[in-house]
Structure formats: C-alpha cells, structure tokens
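**User:** My hope is that you can spare some time for a protein that puzzles me. I have put the entry right below:
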Amino acid sequence: MMKKFLITSVAMATLLAANAMAQNYPNKPLRLVISYPPGGGIDLTARAIAQKVGESLGQTLIVDNRVGGNTIVSAEYSARAAPDGYTLFMPLDSTMTQFQALYDKLPFDPVKDFVPITRVSRTNSLIVTHPKAPFQTLEEFVAYARANPGKPNFAASALTTRLVGEILKTVTGIDMVFVPYKGTAPMIPALMSAEIDLVIDGMSAYVPAIKQGKLRPVALAAPVRNPQLPDTPTTREAGYPQIEASGWLGVFAPAGTPAPIIARLNTEFVKALNSADLGAKLEGMGITVVSSTPEELGALLRADIAKWSPVIRARGIKAD
C-alpha cells in the first residue's frame, strides 16, 4: 500500500511539474534544429516558419543549422536535448524513416527518441528526362528499358528518390543503372546534356526548365497530378501505383517533452502553416503545406518506416 502511494505521489508530482512548466512556456528563445546549411530550400523554409511561429509564441525561434554525418549529427543532438520544449527538430522524412535500415548502428531511434508535433509539407518525386530521349511517357520508358537491358540509367541525390527508381525496377522487371549525385544543381545540366536518361527528384527545381522546353516530364510519383504541371500524368495513371512516393518535412521534440507543451506547439505551428501569408510564401517556393496532429505525424512516420525498410534491405542498399 505504501509503495503504491509513493508511486502515485511521484506521478502526481511529475504531472504538476509538467503543468507548471507548460503554464510558463515559453519564457526564453526556442531553437529549431535543421540538418542542412544556410541558403538552401529547407533552410529558407525553416526560417519562414520560425519567424511566423516565433511571433505567435512571443519568443524568438532560432534556426540552428547543424550540418554533418548525413543529417545524423542534427538528429542525435536533437534527440539528446532537454525535453523542455525549447529544442525542436525539423527533419526530412528520410532521416526518420529510412536510416534505421540504411545504417547498421544509429545513435537515435526516430520513434522512441522523439515526439511528433506536426507535419509541415509534402513533396512528390518527379521522373524527368531530356527532350532528345527516345521515350516520352513512363510506359514508353519501360518498353525502351526492356528492349535495351542494362543500357538506361537514372540519377538521384537523395535516398527517397533513389528508392523510387529501385521500386520502378522491381515492379517492372527492368534493368537500369543508378548514377549517384550530390544534389539537384549538378543533375540538371547533366540531364540537359543527355549524360543521363532519367532524373528522379523533387519537382519544384525542374518546373522552370520544363516550361522552357529544356526538359521533359515523364511522370509524377504521386496519386494525383500537380497544378504546376497539370499535363504530367502520375505513376498511378501509368499503371504503377506502387511507385508513389511523398516526401515530407515534420517538426519533432525530444521524447519526454510534456504533453501540454506538445499541444501548445502543435497549435502554434498549425496556425502559422495555415495562415494566408506564410502559406502563400511557401507555396511560392514550390512547397505544398500539409499540417497535422501529432498523432497523424506519428502514424505517417511508422507507416513510412514499414514501407521503406523492406525495399532498402531487399536491395542491399547501405550508406555511402
């Protein structure tokens, strides 16, 4: 009886302390950790969001660019931060959903070491080629690849987009060579000069060249067409719904962060993301805003881990 009383007393004290912390929260600047250097698309996205959320919270939300270790440095730092709501983490989905299968040992657990706050955005992978390619649609590319086994190649600079290509190979039985690149910038001129046959990448960077006729979209790896490229069919329309791949950004806090603080942060981030001015700014950057509840982001996280891990292991893909 005494032991049960002590456990109940400790639990009550912990709850009261968490509620007290939440009532005074926030009373100092917050930190939003990202895995990428200043000036890039994710950094600009984070800064736009941080400014809006900081204004609403009445505190500065500082963007902390912690680059290194293929995003592992920032993830481990965020996972080990104090669970007080003052250190937040905004990763790409690949860090949270693919790295457990990609690395033999990982210094953080994306499910156990973090608490979801909200999803931020959705990005769909575009399959794109050059105007001189002997195919225009995904169906034509598959036929071309079957007639020329081992000849076609595809380029990607992120694990998620590479996996789109690997799934394409699996579901169609074609043989094409993967060509790794370190980013979008070098892939675009390589594709324009026909050094590579296909690029699989996030859509936004390719829209201007497509509209200028310098590149040709093949298919969007998404369930529905995108209004920026309304004439580009989806992989589902081509008969390959398995190839759909939506990347995302999300906001997380270290595990153990009090529930009232998570609820407050969710409210503030969702309000900011759904505001007309921030929404228009992000849409202008080619970002599709998608907010969520913490539970929805947690479910998405677990579903994507279950989706990608078997593909990575079946293909024997390891970190470079």
